[in-house]
Amino acid sequence: TGSTVVVAPPDGGFREPQNVIDCGNSGTSIRLLSGILAASSFFSVLSGDDSLRSRPMARVVKPLRHMGARIDARNDGKEPPLAIRGGDLRAVDHDLPIASAQVKSAILLAGLRSGLAIREPSPSRDHTERMLTAMGAPIEAVEISGEWQELSEDVAQLQADIFMLRISGDSMINAGIDDGEPFDGDMSVVE
Description:
Mean pLDDT is 76; it is low at 145-191. This protein has a four-stranded mixed sheet with strand order 2-3-5-4. It has a four-stranded mixed sheet with strand order 6-7-10-8, with helices on one face. The protein is globular and about 35 Å long. It is of the alpha+beta class. 34% of the residues are buried. It has helices at residues 27-38, 58-67, 74-77, 101-111, 127-134, 155-164, and strands at 3-6, 21-22, 43-47, 70-73, 79-85, 92-95, 116-119, 139-142, 172-175, 187-190.
């Protein structure tokens, strides 16, 4: 059985937060919010608890900087807090050195406004691609290796995807675990 999540988009889109956004101990939140905020034309700061502030962020920060986001962080962009000045991003062609659904999702979310191509060394979870496709985003998955990846019922990733529904503009969406096959390749493209 599924469930229904009702989402009302914020009037006029997202606005600059008045305070630091506390991601607690959620690596998924800080990585995905980094992508969303990189595409937003205002200043924001993401932080979290002691554990989160010691987690590596360079795999997210580097491609977002390459797209044109201005991001400052401790330890030369490697550790939170992240100070993000987003805005006009450029389309990029990015090779992920390590397959990571969270890093891929952050880049995809930033690329919704600029366009991009992402190549993975092996398939990672594709919850974000399927969610964005269901909401009408022009996502194309191209088979390169012919390998298949089984989906796990990753509750943290699903919770992050439900949060991301806020950027869709849709007032209602059906959310649940899809038992279908994930995309059948390594490349995701947003135009």
